[in-house]
Amino acid sequence: MNTLSLCGAVLSIAVLILNLRTWWKGNREIKALIPFGGGVIQGTSWTLCVGGLLGWVAVRSASAGSTAGDWAVSRVTGKGGGTLAAGTAGTLTVPGACVVVVALLVGVVLFKAAGKNDKKRILGGLFVGTTLCGTAGAAQIMQWVPDIYNALGQGVVDALNGALPL
C-alpha cells in the first residue's frame, strides 16, 4: 500500500476539520454527519481491497493527497514531505468482500440521489477514508470496519446455507 506523507495527512485532516466545522456551526444533528461519515467508512473499506479496483483507487487517492499536501505545505512553509507509518484496518474475508460490493452499489445509488452539498460531503469522506486509513493510527481506530463487513457477510452465508438462528 502506498503510504500517505505527513503533508498529505494534513490535507486529509483539513477536509475532516472543514466537514466537522460545518456540522458544528449548523444544527448539530447527527443525521447531518451521515454523508461524510458514510464516505469515510466506504473509503476505509476501499483500503481493505488490496489487489482490486477499489484498492487501486485508495492507493491513487493517497498518492494524490500526498502530492497535493506536499505542494501546499512546501509553498506555505518551504518544507514538504514527511513520512508516516503505514497501516491497515484489517483484512476482508470473501463474504466480507461481497458485502463491500453491495455497499458500493448502495453507495452509488445514494450518491446519485444526494443533493449537491451532500455529494461534496460524501466525496470528502471518501477522500479522508481512503487516505488517512492508510496510516497506522487511523487504521487502528477503524479496525471495526472489516469486522462488521466480515460478520455481515458470514451471516448472509450462514442464512443462505440454511443455518438461520432461531
What keywords describe this structure?
mainly alpha, 7 helices, globular, 166 residues
How would you portray this structure in words?
The chain is mainly alpha-helical. It has one domain. The chain has helices spanning 6-25, 34-47, 53-77, 94-113, 116-132, 136-141, 144-160. Helix 2 packs parallel to helix 5 (116-132). The mean pLDDT is 94.
Whole-number total of structural domains: 1
Task: Please give the number of β-strands.
Answer: 0
Order of helices and strands: HHHHHHH
Regions with little confidence, pLDDT below 50 for 5+ residues: none
Mean pLDDT across all amino acids = 94
What overall form do the CA principal axes indicate? globular
Give the amount of beta strand, in percent.
Answer: under 5%
Approximately how much helix is present in the residues?
over 70%
Quaternary: single chain
Computed CA radius of gyration, to the nearest angstrom: 17 Å
Total helices: the number is 7
Distance linking N and C termini: 42 Å
The biggest beta sheet reads:
none
Class by alpha and beta content: mainly alpha
